[in-house]
Amino acid sequence: MMRKPSSILVIYTGGTIGMVKDVESGSLVPVNVERLLANIPEINRLDIEIHIHTFTHTIDSSNIHPAHWVQLVEVIEENYPQYDGFVVLHGSDTMAYSASALSFMLENLSKPVIFTGSQLPIGVLRTDARENFITALEIAAMKENGAPKLNEVCIYFEYHLLKGNRTTKFSSSHFNAFTSANYPPLAEAGVQINLNENVLHRQSGKETIFHKKLNQDIAILKIFPGMTPGYVNGILQVEGLKAVVMETFGSGNAPTETWFIEALHSAIQKGLIIANVTQCTSGTVYQGKYKTSNQLEKIGVISGQDVTTEAAITKLMFLLGNYSDTAEIKRLFSFSLRGEMTIAALENK
Ligand code: ASP
User: Fold this and answer.
1) What are the residue numbers of the active site?
2) Residues β-bridged to residue 222
């Protein structure tokens, strides 16, 4: 019997991968999918059935919005039965946010959703787009016993497949633009593509759920030496605000000044959720390790453990969009829902 090739839906949202120089402004602007594909005829030689869905308005990913994440989920839901996997072409600037958001919105995935893009446009001679796109397609098409080999949201960039909700963009100039400092790569592409089997998500076997509700009443409070009460209160008192991701020093430490702790405490008592994540690229928040984080623990700041800011923001958007009880949101935030934290997964508790 002839082996059936994998079928992959490519969803083109925009990004540098499909940009050209605008003659008037000299800036990079997105082009249509036909022009993008014309620059990469090699994909026709892959033993993969490829179909393309293109956003009506392709965008620079700096313009990405939660509405686009809902749109992505809708396209994946509509096409889920027909395809073995999905490759999302997306700008690198906010790719870590989008991949994190989709990891929460797609529950019990049984197929891969791989984000990729490039640092140089596909038409440029030294582009990284060709390798990124082709390898992302090959990984998305991998099967074992007739079923997709991967079943999670990932980012493929510069020879590494990373877990989407563990990823951060750390370079605007290197081809190797992403890091996943608290979780090993899922695969490395060299002469062969080597999957790191031990760290791949194991399929739950449960029905896939496509979540579409997000709530954006969120802020980031980045602390710094010398911040003023005006700055902190300006954020904590934003009208309608429901949750704050507070980026702290080191293992979750913050100033112990009374005005600061009191401002946080009073906001928490009024129902605001404050999650503590570290400004460090790697490592974890450990509230209570130092005296400078003891108070935070006592007043009810929740620890984000080793979650990235991107995953913390999108996880809170997802939880606030789907649950109304603050205590329940805080409880769920403290568990790993999709492998975004190293701590115990919810189903093991
Ligand atoms: N500004 C671009 C974007 O995020 C950068 C890129 O694609 O790498 O859409």
Assistant:
1) 16
2) 247
